[in-house]
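ok, trying the design again with the full structure, not the truncated one.
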């Protein structure tokens, strides 16, 4: 059995805003949120990169969560739930309340056993882990230091201890829900709980390719008839008071180094690129449905998922294989899976990180497979790198580009590294088929072929 797969809903949380409408208008306006890293981080380390892309405030209201839910779930899961709720309601499906206190629902008209959840995340509840690890490690030591400081009176050493104590920020307690909050599969589990989807519930932790892989595997399950509907995408929340997650990428040399002009620091595919812009995180969820079912209920089909491919470099844990052989093989596998020739792809939404090594390899593979005429873009030029959510966000952008027949521009691209047809302006485009791809630390490559509706 081989069935067609429709995208009927999208939900998004990014630095450009909460919700698909705000995000897409921000993309077309060329907006980018770039700010200095938190001052508190500088108390604990020196950094080469000094900018990042923070999210809007994620409080109970903005996440659509209760105070109890905030205390029992990491932001990475709550962001995924918010995006999923937007995708489901936007698809036209009827959501009915199941348990008011637990804030759970079920979707009318579907068989929950044939509804699945496929989500990607790079690190899951890392923030929860770090917050609670800090409490366990420092709470008693901070009390001891406080007693020593008090015994010193007005001594200059007491003032110095005051400064140290002020920088040791810890929570009020060790959270009793820490295990279920930090486990990566909580991202998928919460969505299954919220909507009572009892089919396959899977989490993919494949670094920067996580979201793309999740959508690809959901597509495969629907196409072969195992399920009829799926929530698929990625979520990431990379924040901690001490800046340790950011520091890890900074020490690895992956982040933007040219930060004199923060607004122009992030520049994928440009000769002056110096690394990727670290994002605090993001989430994107697509609602995928079996084609005839979606058409039969009168759903608005945003695009079709037509093919998927994946490969593995087997080259390096941290560096892309410069010859791009496995990336090219992944692309051709996805095209073959969709029954689409390279010449019939009009748009490529790239991985496009802005690193010295990745961009030339990716540009070279695109030229080899698609030629110089295909339109090429990098969504990371706007929002930076959201790690496990990036592929899902870029898939959502590709769906929106197909639906609206336009693309955002590749921001800060002044001196391109290759003679490719980069998107330099927002204008009407004729796009019937598009490709979006992701690469990941470890050596993973994944890509999706998406088609315009009607096709």
């Amino acid at each position: 059995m081989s069935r067609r797969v429709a995208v009927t809903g999208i939900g998004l949380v990014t630095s450009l805003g909460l919700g698909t409408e705000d995000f897409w208008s921000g993309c077309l306006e060329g907006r980018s949120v770039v700010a200095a890293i938190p001052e508190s981080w500088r108390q604990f380390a020196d950094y080469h990169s000094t900018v990042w892309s923070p999210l809007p405030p994620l409080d109970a209201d903005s996440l659509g969560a209760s105070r109890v839910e905030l205390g029992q779930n990491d932001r990475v899961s709550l962001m995924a739930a918010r995006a999923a709720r937007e995708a489901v309601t936007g698809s036209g499906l009827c959501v009915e309340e199941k348990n008011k206190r637990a804030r759970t629902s079920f979707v009318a008209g579907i068989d929950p056993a044939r509804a699945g959840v496929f989500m990607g995340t790079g690190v899951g509840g890392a923030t929860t882990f770090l917050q609670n690890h800090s409490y366990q490690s420092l709470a008693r030591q901070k009390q001891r230091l406080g007693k020593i400081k008090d015994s010193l009176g007005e001594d200059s050493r007491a003032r110095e201890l005051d400064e140290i104590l002020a920088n040791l920020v810890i929570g009020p307690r060790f959270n009793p829900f820490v295990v279920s909050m930090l486990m990566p599969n909580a991202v998928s589990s919460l969505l299954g709980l919220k909507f009572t989807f009892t089919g396959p519930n899977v989490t993919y932790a494949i670094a920067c390719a996580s979201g793309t892989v999740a959508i690809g595997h959901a597509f495969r399950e629907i196409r072969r008839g195992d399920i009829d509907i799926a929530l698929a995408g990625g979520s990431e929340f990379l924040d901690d008071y001490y800046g340790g997650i950011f520091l890890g990428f900074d020490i690895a040399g992956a982040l933007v180094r040219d930060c004199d002009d923060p607004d122009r620091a992030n520049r994928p595919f440009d000769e002056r690129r110096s690394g990727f812009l670290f994002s605090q995180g993001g989430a994107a969820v697509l609602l995928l449905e079996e084609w005839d079912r979606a058409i039969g209920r009168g759903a608005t089909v945003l695009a079709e998922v037509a093919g998927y491919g994946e490969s593995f470099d087997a080259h390096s844990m941290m560096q892309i294989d410069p010859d791009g052989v496995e990336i090219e093989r992944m692309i051709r596998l996805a095209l073959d899976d969709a029954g689409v020739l390279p010449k019939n792809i009009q748009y490529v939404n790239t991985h496009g990180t802005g690193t010295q090594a990745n961009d030339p390899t990716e540009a070279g593979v695109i030229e080899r497979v698609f030629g110089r005429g295909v339109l090429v873009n990098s969504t990371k030029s706007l929002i930076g790198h959201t790690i496990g959510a990036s592929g899902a966000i870029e898939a959502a952008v590709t769906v929106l580009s197909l639906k609206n027949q336009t693309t955002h521009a590749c921001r800060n691209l002044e001196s391109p590294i290759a003679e490719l047809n980069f998107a330099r302006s927002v204008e009407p485009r004729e796009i019937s088929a598009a490709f979006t791809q992701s690469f990941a630390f470890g050596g993973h490559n994944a890509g999706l072929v998406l088609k315009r509706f009607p096709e």
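Keeping the full-length input from now on. The radius of gyration is 22 Å.
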